[in-house]
């Protein structure tokens, strides 16, 4: 058909096109962020506050000092780690909306292990707690996939239901069997020093969980793009029928992607309990399991993108409270901007559609 | 509703119709014309542009240029409903029916004249009974479409078109799902319709049928009209040259399989019930020998899809056993069967054969991703994947730009080559080929057939399941007929003939 | 014996349970009835939860300031139309992944309502209240044992809901438009050849769904409680999705299934009052557990519309995430 030189040129052209596509994809995430911030500015203006002042306070609160950077990164930890788990599940077309419940249960069982062996050496105790949290999160998530495989029950609805069940169950635990003796609050006794994650940046709360998060991001990237397991997750998510016909154990792919997802949520729970609260409390997560979904989407189901999105969202959340005290814009405005970012990102195709339409109109006019 | 057929005479002309899909020209200045009471055959191989042309007439596609005249008046066909108002009715190859609704409801969806906002279903049913009796269509308008046989559903489509006032009826490959005997019945209906003054456009690539039913014939090749002739002025041989550009090279000379060839696959009394608990395969027995192509003929929907899936391990049979090389594989997963030497060329390659949104390279390793040298200790070897993929693309002449492009960007023929390349590169022993040339043009079909014969030469066993009798006769050493989930008879290549197979396809064994 | 049973059935405790069952069922029922339209038309609405919470807040705020619950509900209807249009634009025109968009929209709506509530009412210790819709006793009918309290001792909005169930059944099974919806959800390509405008049909369906979900949410704040609480829908939008499966996309099936859930919810609330030795957390879990268990039984046999979740493109192209 083509001669060799032509062929080579075509292939180069194709590669160029692919690179352009990758850039556009990254650009669309950034574009969504910028557009959402602009819309946020309009809202802030409507509240009678100068948006520049508000955003300055926000950025200051998020990245202004060593401590604020540490807090931002600290907030990014549960979002990133849960987000990469969700990435694996969504890639396999398993819609795990249950990370919140998995996180709660993971945190609880990690703390239970910590309380049971307060004198064990940290090098043994901390991994034990992490493993307990991961296993619990994985099992809780795994139930939803087993119900899907066995009864064709929708895993998205079930994981939502299981969130409510898990959170109420944990509420009962911390008000009942594992409540701190003598305390009226819904919390357990404090963890011993051996069961607390070491700090990696002096005079801040930034703990070793952040390093582990970075390692997990690298590991997940490797798993998804370089291993047979990741490959099978990707193809099964795209076409489970062809994958099954080709001998891929799709049931195992579904289950294992969820187990991984649940384990990551459980690990995040362990970090929150052993790194920040130093005990189990009733409201250990302020919706990290849900926010992590949009973090995963904004990160385009790419672990490295997820990490960046998590740091961005961490910064927004930490900066929000500074902004509230400084200029009086409610912190929930930032929550709104977060979700707006993702809505805009999902609807990114609208922009090219509108441009097309405008071009067409101009043609008609001419 | 108006009486379905008026005495008014109709005449349809399409002139210079051009349709493009991107850079591909599907119709290139096509002219056709059909008269009152006439049957026009539109003859051409797959991809020649027949269906596209008819979609223009049905208001589904708008042509880039060209004129359409009905009764001498130029018309613009704006939408499907407008096309129907102009008296055009189309029976699509894939039925345009809503399976969960009754025949009567199917007929009057989108028709305000049936009563709006509340259609008078009872009245429609009575009218349908009358039309059905008049044309001997034998349809109960109260029946839910999903409970009807394929042949009946086709008649529902005809009934629907007639009820909607069709004077020009387009039938797109109507016989591909019918037995020779059912085809005969359909031809009776067509003759009756034209006798009543209706015009029929009959789309087909089967020469014998075209010669039997049509008055005039228009031949399309690669989007262009190559001939427009009266049936009496031509013959099958001339038509075949017009259709494919060269004469059919039929009847290969194949070395016969030695009778002492050992048995490769044995299927022993397989029974399979579908989701509705209805038996789809009923104690089916079958063998495939080494170095043999065993063709399974039959009308679509007699259990072929399930047979292929049961053999590939995608469906679990309810009873019975499957042996490959004497080993019982009945309980093995698809993956283990693949390891045992099974290859599967599925009928629905886009759904079952390929992952359309990932690269060619990733499609090549779909079955081997867990094995060396594609991967080691669970880690993919991209160098190996790239090199193997490039080699396969070269060996199987897959027209593409890069191994990184997605399977979705390939043409149908190249997608099928991709599947063949993947399956055959694993050196399988037993191959299930389901409708391997469906939707392919002559060149690609030829390629697929040659590759299958090559596998046969290598001593591998092939189960060829096809509804195309031509394909079955051309390739098979033995021919079995499947009917309602059972093998009715197995005939050797020498004793099988069209008539006998055709009768068996309708379930008649006493011949 | 029979006398005992009768006096139990007519006791105020049991009657209270029965009226509460329907009262708690109505929001889910409204949302699920809305779901019948869009899912039968072949388009999913995972965003029901979000639609409901927006309806709750809108209904409450507008009632609060206008002094009329009905104006509040009207406002909720308007917001429902708007949300339906947005969802239609994303799912029908842009053809985005419907699950991903639905989940994200829910999160967005929860964030939006919390933000707006905070802006409008500030941080107050005593939460603002409105007078909820009054109960209307239907003469004679409300006196029938069991049936009376369930069906005929309710608010006007509940009676409207019954009518909507009936209207939906008539539309789906008798009207030309219902046939269009079913055709668009089973085989959109065929529907188009028969003269159905699939895109428009789906837009109408999702807008109706938006309106009904929004009214369902407004019912929570304006008819059940008279106040707005952050995240007060508490997963009811997702339960409504399950109700659709359990009710097999049939208006009457949905009616029964929603009532079952209302009863479970009423039961756990009443049990809490009785101070049994059961921790309240286990009682609150009950509806969610019930939802899972019942789904397990119905999922295998329930058949969804064939083209559900598949975007329709006149050119025949497929969608991407």
TrEMBL record, chain A:
It is found in: Cell membrane. Pfam families: BPD_transp_2. It is a multi-pass membrane protein. One of its GO terms (cellular component) is plasma membrane. The chain crosses the membrane at residues 23-48, 68-90, 102-120, 126-147, 208-232, 252-276, 288-316, 336-355. GO terms for molecular function: transmembrane transporter activity. Keywords: Cell membrane, Membrane, Transmembrane, Transmembrane helix. Its main location: membrane. The keyword Cell membrane applies. It comes from the Bacteria. InterPro entries: ABC_transp_permease. This is ABC-type uncharacterized transport system, permease component. It comes from Flexilinea flocculi.
UniProtKB/TrEMBL annotation, chain B:
This is ABC-type uncharacterized transport system, ATPase component. Keywords: ATP-binding, Nucleotide-binding. GO terms for molecular function: ATP binding; ATP hydrolysis activity. Residues 12-247, 265-509 form the ABC transporter domain. SUPFAM superfamilies: P-loop containing nucleoside triphosphate hydrolases (SSF52540).
From TrEMBL, chain C:
It is found in: Cell membrane. Its main location: membrane. The lineage of its organism: Bacteria, Bacillati, Chloroflexota, Anaerolineae, Anaerolineales. It comes from the Bacteria. The chain crosses the membrane at residues 20-38, 50-67, 73-92, 99-121, 159-183, 203-229, 238-260, 280-298. GO terms for molecular function: transmembrane transporter activity. It comes from Flexilinea flocculi. InterPro entries: ABC_transp_permease. This is Nucleoside ABC transporter membrane protein. It is a multi-pass membrane protein. Coiled coil: none annotated. GO terms for cellular component: plasma membrane. Keywords: Cell membrane, Membrane, Transmembrane, Transmembrane helix. The keyword Transmembrane helix applies.
